[in-house]
Amino acid sequence: MSDDKHSAQFSPFFLRFAENLRSIFDSLYDGIITVDPAGKIQQFNKAAEKITAFSADEALDKPLHVILRSRKEALTEMVVQSISANRRIENYGLEITTKDGRLKTINITSTVLSDIYEDKPAGAVISIADVTEIYSLKEELRGRYRLDQIIGKNHLIQQVYDRILQTAESDSTVLIQGESGTGKELVAHAIHYHSHRAHAPFIKVNCSALAETLLESELFGHVKGAFTGALYDKVGRFEAANGGTIFLDEVGDFSPFIQLKLLRVLQEREFERVGETASRKSDVRIIAATSRNLKDLVQKAEFRPDLYYRLRVIPIFLPPLRERRDDLPLLINHFINRFNKIMAKRIRGVSEESMVFLWNYDWPGNIRELEHALEHAIVLSRSTLIEPHDLPLEIRKMEDFEPTQERKIRLLKHSRLETKAEHSIITQALREAAGNRTQAANILGISRTTLWRKMRTHHIE
User: 145-319: which CATH architecture?
Assistant: First the structure.
């Protein structure tokens, strides 16, 4: 049979094969570009057209950087060098400007193509993934946990800021202590997102929510058949957090068995999955948190002292809200602005009477309770100011409304609150004293002269 007959016989097959390949090439989700050894584009699929807004006809025979327009103009040169060195480029992040002027973030992976006839590279196949949305979400997440999201000017919270910055760049274990609702998770996130591990996983484990057997599997993973219901191998949180940070919330609730397992991880940086004898290593930073007093638990023999000292290499204490009341105006303003955006409201602030209630309340739930109280008030508010009747009942109970002398003095000492609440406090004291200024000054714990000056400031007769 002649060569012409062979060509005639196989041409339809090869044509269909080529058409199928082209169909597959164009149906891929990621953009696919092939370039020759000089970095000029030879093929350009439909996904690449969608990502860049250039058509295949516009892209063909153009140097790569002309189509993937970026500030990094050496892109073509970098790909050409990788072809010459027979080197793969993997997950190379690049911000490009599309033909229609949009900014996009893409990940590039370039693999060298070998020439089927000669022992030399024929070019490269480049896959491009549009990760703009993922990148934006990551940046939003980083923004949510920036240091300036921890609100406060009080000296106690300023010490926390300093400790976060001092701690972030190290890999030392951190123990965050504070009452429920003080912002322990926020601080843990801030440490992670200001560290060199920021682009690696941040894995949270709520240690109080799981029984001992489940917690062991959750932390360290298990192998198939390790226990009833272990139908497959499971990666634990320590393994999942490799390269990043693991946040162990409420470590004070650990059982003695889990305490011992965690101690080994801290000492040797290795662990075993449940049902497995081989040890595994994980490069992970540990941040622990608790609302319990671990020192007291150590004294009661409920918490291992060696684990306690391993955990508190860098201790951070978060003060309760009642000890930083001077931050209330900043926190209130922050939450009002946030809920205004979420609910499309136009709340300007809180009334003087509402501020008195907010100031005098002890906030057992701390900042979390304040956040929920303001959300409650903003939902119910029908004006531009939050009034007392908008606040949750437990905050505006009459027995909580009558401030102690100590609280009145503390309130009057903060000048930032004068225009918000001082008028109401002074008026209330005068009413209690039946207009007697000496007695009112005694109630407030200030001198008669100071009371007279403040009455003039607030135009109180």
Answer: 3-Layer(aba) Sandwich (3.40)
